[in-house]
Design brief:
Blueprint: H1 4-25, H2 33-56, H3 61-74
Amino acid sequence: MPDTRGWAMVGLFALAFFIFALIGIDHTIANVQLFGVLATAVISGGLGGALGFYFGSSKGSADKDAVVAEAVSKSPDASQ
């Protein structure tokens, strides 16, 4: 199962596909200026930002948690 970033990517790709499907079904919607502005913002800004974040971010939280748990298990116990 994808993590949160994965689900966000799936949603953005689905939204982009939906926008292109709307244009394919009804060509006159492409002439509506508001639709064009919103579609451009979603496709260029949304997908570009999401891809940049997804591929530019560091390890996922599960990997970070595993590293922290391993470091804690190797530390000396303060109660002894």
